[in-house]
Specification:
Elements lengths: L24 E4 L3 E7 L5 E8 L2 E10 L2 E3 L2 E7 L6 E7 L2 E2 L4 E2 L14 E2 L33 E3 L22 E4 L1 H5 L13 H4 L2 H10 L3 E4 L3 E3 L3 H6 L9 E7 L11 H15 L3 E6 L16 H9 L25 H16 L5 E4 L2 H4 L11 H8 L7 E4 L19 E3 L1 H12 L5 H8 L3 H4 L9 E4 L8 H4 L34 H20 L4 E5 L31 H16 L22 E4 L8 H4 L6 E6 L13 E6 L5 E4 L9 E6 L3 H5 L6 E4 L3 E7 L2
Parallel strand pairs: 12-13, 12-21, 13-16, 16-17, 17-18, 18-19, 19-20, 20-21
Antiparallel strand pairs: 1-2, 2-6, 3-4, 3-7, 5-6, 7-11, 8-9, 10-11, 14-15, 22-23, 23-24, 24-28, 25-27, 26-28
Length: 710
């Protein structure tokens, strides 16, 4: 057993008043700072103060004297914003019982609004002595303060002017998933000192680009303070994506242009304010399912040293070990009130103080687990549903985790939207030319009523996507049959094996030019499938301009040109196409419904609201849907309901995934119209040679959209 801790004699006490148990964290009131930390089972909690002139050296250490309802707290007159601090907690070190207190480890405040300094990997960060057999059962007396980032007291005041949430209706939303650094790091028109920062995202050049493209909502990959993994550090790599959170209130400091403590908070707010002024929403990708401390062999940085058994799910019979539903080594214990409070306080903070418009919850099924199974009636959902603030912003679930029964697409409660992995998988199979996809395609095109309609949810519950940060970029999706992750240092064993096996042209047509043309068209086809379907589309940054990651489909550790968007190598033709396609969606309300489009007739109308046709011009029959050789589907959409907005027009869409041209006959009466081409995945040169009579030849691998002519 380790020796009892005795504070150094050259450290002295500050004046300390009892203060308040709430709010948790460090709160400045203009005259001093109240510190409050939940540590139910600690015997003593020490407040440690540091100076920016020498942040590695502890200046003052004092015990928090007041303990109320599991919370240690104290008020210190005279302390001000910019003060660096951390905590140390005393208690039993019994790893076999799930207790891992070690007062030699400086701990981040779980409620810190800002952090200062970088985590520098060293043996001192670990609560045990490295290199021993069953090392995590040993005790380390090495002090970690010099290697730890410090928490920062912040001044929350900010001039928001008349800022307000744009509150764009879901059916009009187009989400753009982006990385703060990756999107802006190579932009030649953004000042070099701002590239890769919040200020770059909010820069007029970047906002003008997003507005020109036509997106309504930017979804930022994690910006909560995160840890770059130890195993990546040993390889000379770093965590790029940020799915390794250690602070749920503090914006990640590496994305700040300013160097002074706390400047990243104001910079983040300025970014949000600028985007809101342009009518663009901000959604955060948040990671409340686990932390960056890993499993029992991980470092002691925050939660493990504050109250390991209260924050994490431990194996009931072997509490030395962590229950892992996330694939990262640990899982936060959302069954317990203190963890739920942490998550809810964090969400409220980012809404009320940082003005964000919503959240995308990473591995959200983990948050819904009660004892083991995913539970739609879990405390997590109940609290969010009842919260008057959180329930009013956009809530998006990644509806799976890595645990048993974790795939929960279509099973989240009303009020939630979901990443629709089935939409992604269907369109990939369809454009690859797989047989037997038409029946499911019709369902995904309508917003997946099979997943959402029975629960009184709307098409906007479906967040449709083809690519995301995790996986191939759109360009690589149509260019590589296999992943090429060699740069990750794992012998290309990491990342999902997508095995696309693209057919790159008709038989005999395998010239380099033909292959390149098909790749370009397939990118446009995927964008058409995404942006012409019902539901909320999500694009990955760079999909609009041919971004490549050179076949790497797991760039989580590539903070370099492999991941960053190259602005000088953009495909300008693809950008123009995507911009036009987004405008076409915006101008055609039939493509973005807030109700289910069904195949019935409105009173007095001779046509259905939606009808499905074969290439021969006849309505699809049951046997047609199950004919495996069919790879072409024609769709008629009509604004026949009385509540359709002005400007609605009938549309006739053709999706042809065949490797050959297909003869198309337009439908007969009452669907017969003088159809004129309104949009296509073909280039202008390819369109110039086509004539659309009652019968015509539809090119292979193409999308054609018609509207009634004059």
């Amino acid at each position: 057993m380790h020796e009892e801790y005795t504070p150094a004699t050259d450290l002295y006490e500050l004046e300390q008043l009892p203060g308040s148990e709430y709010p948790l964290g460090a709160t400045w009131d203009g005259a001093g700072v109240n510190f409050s930390i939940y540590a139910q089972n600690a015997s003593i909690v020490w407040l440690c103060l540091f100076d920016t002139a020498d942040p590695d050296t502890e200046q003052i250490r004092v015990p928090l004297k007041k303990f109320t309802h599991g919370v240690w707290h104290g008020y210190f007159p005279g302390l001000r914003p910019g003060q660096l601090y951390g905590f140390r907690a005393e208690g039993p070190y019994q790893p076999e019982l799930g207790e891992r207190y070690n007062v030699n480890k400086l701990l981040l405040d779980p409620y810190a609004k800002s952090t200062y300094g970088d985590l520098r990997w060293d043996e001192a960060l670990f609560g045990y002595q490295m290199g021993h057999e069953e090392a995590d059962l040993t005790f380390s007396d090495k002090d970690s303060a010099a290697f730890m980032p410090k928490s920062v007291v912040v001044d929350p005041s900010f001039d928001w002017r008349d800022d307000h949430l744009p509150r764009i209706p879901p059916e009009r939303s187009v989400i753009y998933e982006a990385h703060v650094k990756g999107l802006t790091m190579l932009h030649p028109d953004i000042p070099e000192e701002l590239r890769g920062t919040y200020a770059a995202i909010g820069h007029p050049v970047m906002i003008a680009y997003l507005k020109e493209l036509g997106i309504t909502t930017i979804e930022l990959l994690p910006v909560h303070t995160f840890v770059s993994d130890h195993h990546l550090h040993e390889k000379g790599l770093s965590n790029y994506w940020g799915y390794n959170t250690i602070g749920f209130f503090a914006p990640e400091r590496r994305y700040a242009a300013g160097k002074e403590p706390g400047t990243e908070v104001a910079e983040f707010k300025e970014m949000v304010r600028s985007l809101h002024e342009a009518g663009i929403e901000v959604i955060l990708d948040v990671v409340y399912n686990h932390t960056g401390e890993g499993n029992q062999m991980g470092p002691t940085l925050c939660f493990r040293g504050i109250d390991n058994a209260e924050y994490y799910r431990l194996e009931p019979d072997l509490p030395r070990y962590y229950r892992d539903y996330t694939g990262t080594g640990n899982t936060l214990n959302t069954r317990l009130p203190n963890v739920l409070r942490l998550i809810m306080d964090s969400l409220r903070y980012w809404i009320s103080e940082m003005h964000v418009d919503g959240f995308r919850f990473d591995l959200a099924s983990t948050l819904a687990r009660e004892l083991h199974d995913v539970n739609r009636l879990s405390a997590f959902f109940d609290i969010i549903h009842q919260d008057p603030l959180i329930s009013q912003v956009k809530l998006i679930a990644e509806p799976w985790d890595v645990g048993e029964g974790g795939y929960q697409v279509g099973k989240f409660p009303p009020g939630w939207s979901e990443w629709n992995g089935m939409f992604r998988d269907l369109w990939r199979r369809f454009w690859r030319g797989d047989e037997g996809t038409l029946a499911e395609m019709s369902c995904r095109f309508l917003g997946s009523p099979d997943l959402y309609q029975a629960d009184s949810r709307l098409p906007t519950a479906s967040i449709n996507f083809i690519t995301a940060h995790d996986g191939f970029s759109l360009y690589d999706l149509v260019s590589y049959n296999e992943k090429h992750n060699e740069a990750n240092g794992e012998d290309n064993q990491d990342g999902e094996s997508e095995n696309l096996s693209w057919n790159c042209g008709e038989e005999g047509e395998t010239t380099e030019e033909a292959v390149l043309n098909l790749r370009r068209r397939q990118q446009r086809n995927f964008l058409c499938g995404l942006l012409l379907s019902q539901g909320v589309p999500m694009m990955t940054a760079g999909a609009e301009c041919g971004k490549t990651q050179h076949g790497n489909n797991n760039v989580y550790c590539q903070d370099n040109e492999i991941s960053w968007l190259s602005w000088t190598a953009r495909d300008h033709d693809l950008f123009a196409f995507t911009k036009a396609l987004l405008a076409f969606r915006r101008d055609n309300p039939l493509l973005r419904q807030d109700t289910w489009v069904m195949g019935d007739r409105a009173p007095g109308s001779p046509v259905k609201k939606i009808a499905w046709f074969s290439p021969a011009g006849s309505e699809m029959k049951t046997k047609d849907w199950h004919e495996h050789g069919r790879k072409t589907l024609c769709i008629f959409l009509s604004p026949t309901s009385l509540d359709q907005p002005a400007g609605s027009s009938e549309l006739f869409l053709i999706f042809n995934a065949s490797h050959e041209a297909v003869q198309i006959t337009f439908p007969k009466r009452p669907y017969r119209r003088n159809w004129t081409l309104a949009f296509a995945s073909l280039t202008p040169e390819e369109q110039a040679g086509l004539a659309f009579q009652e019968e015509f030849s539809c090119p292979p691998h193409s999308v054609l959209v018609f509207r009634p002519g004059a």
